[in-house]
């Protein structure tokens, strides 16, 4: 887990359920039905080791809005951060010291960017240093961006803002974010199109997992069916499974499943989450999460 600047709280992606989820062992690729459906998902996941020392808290009397969160037995709190992969939002989780966590420090963590393991996994950040939350009132956090925040073109700027909005709105006191000087307050719904078809919130890059490994996230996929493979370092399939997300008719829903695998010795591996193509049965919208697999004995 990374130990970085002071903490925050964990995220929720909530979507309406359309059909009861099902799970099971994954045999041959599911045949493509005639109708198209889609699904949502949400969750949270841990993060790789930190390479930066935790940041200091805000100076006394600074007036910076703060967000307090209880810590775990080791004095840390997992905080979800939304980075970018291939132009789409992608979540990870960092362990931060469980002291007073400020909104300013949350943005500083976004600006500091992914860990080395997360960068290998394709994550990056568009958020520059210097953005600060100056006010939280009525569920709206006001963010004062640094010079150059709106540079880079409309697509880049919108994705950058989405990173800030999805990260700050994980806290119960923040539902929307307004960018000064006179920006309209926006929430997660305004950036849903920047999510990939499959979001994996657990596990995250660098996690150590054991069988059965719990896989969570959100998805908008064909017939709401989310499939998972567990691969060893050589790319051999050591476990499979599938489930349905909580929504499956052109909407995003949450999913959660436990996938068993068999491995004689601990070592590197990959949790691969995907949907089966309705056209040719191939794996599409693949999300690969590098992990360490515990031995199954």
TrEMBL record:
SMART domains: Germane. Residues 103-190 form the GerMN domain. Residues 26-45, 52-67 have a biased composition (Low complexity). Residues 1-25 form the signal peptide. Keywords: Signal. InterPro entries: GerMN, Gmad2_Ig-like_dom. Pfam families: Germane, Gmad2. Residues 26-76 are annotated as: Disordered. This is Sporulation and spore germination.
